[in-house]
Every structure is written in structure tokens, then in C-alpha cells.
Design a protein that fits this description.
Distance between the termini: 27 Å
Strand order of the largest sheet: 1-2
Structural class: alpha+beta
Number of helices: 1
Order of helices and strands: HEE
Helix content: 10-25%
Number of domains: 1
Strand content: 25-35%
Shape: flat
Number of strands: 2
Oligomer: single chain
Largest sheet: 2 strands, antiparallel
Radius of gyration: 17 Å
Length: 52
């Protein structure tokens, strides 16, 4: 099934199987146009928002 996109319904069904307790985002912009050296890190824990 590689390369096959999920339908919205399939994505909803799979999302019901997941529980997210936390997530972490690490953003490195050092290779960005203009040569910026900014680094940012964000972590969040708690309940994930539920869909419609």
C-alpha cells in the first residue's frame, strides 16, 4: 500500500486507534535562506484536541 493516500474516513478510523500524551517539535532554521541561526524547541503535554 505504499504511495497510496488514505481517504478521510480511513484517516478518522486510524485516528481513533491513537492516543497522544505529548509531542515535541524541534525547528532548526540554520539552513534557511538568509543564513539565519535561530533555533526553536517546543514541547507540549496533556490531552490532544479532538476532531469534529
Amino acid at each position: 500500500m505504499p504511495g497510496t493516500n488514505l481517504t478521510r474516513e480511513e484517516a478518522r478510523q486510524r485516528a481513533k486507534l491513537l492516543t497522544v500524551d505529548s509531542y515535541e517539535i524541534d525547528l532548526d532554521l540554520s539552513g534557511a535562506q538568509g543564513g539565519g541561526t535561530s533555533r526553536s524547541s517546543e514541547a507540549e503535554s496533556g490531552e490532544a484536541p479532538t476532531g469534529p
